[in-house]
Amino acid sequence: MRCPYCKSNKTKVIDKRDSDEGISRRRRECLRCFKRFTTYERVENVEINVEKRDGTVEQYDRSKLNKSIMKSVRKGSVEDEQVHRIIDDIESKLLSRKSKTVKSSDIGEMVLTRLKWLDGPAYMRFASIYRGFESLEDFEKEIKSLKKLNSK
Ligand SMILES: [Zn+2]
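The joint structure predicted for all components is written out below.
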């Protein structure tokens, strides 16, 4: 982070506040010219470990989650921005948890509850990938519950 006045890269953080939206506000002081300035930094690296179904653990990856949601969404049916908002929302939920490890199935469920209201067909596709429906019966049950939800 460079000082906007003298371009020095030696600055210190004097105050830090994190918002729910994954944006962190930092008040900094330049160690060379002693001017103060505020930066808003996106918390890009959500430091969370994801435990996969097979038990392996990997670092949470936003672009991966984005890709998997976009795969389920029909072109033009959902805006990129809406997907970003879903992910922002999930990330802030994950960050507010005490545990730094989350099951991939939990993330899948969080996506599902949000997709359900946004785009029914995308929800179904995502569910079939993430829940790995075991049988046609499971799949039909899911469609029925979705129809019930939409007719309310
Ligand atoms: Zn400076």
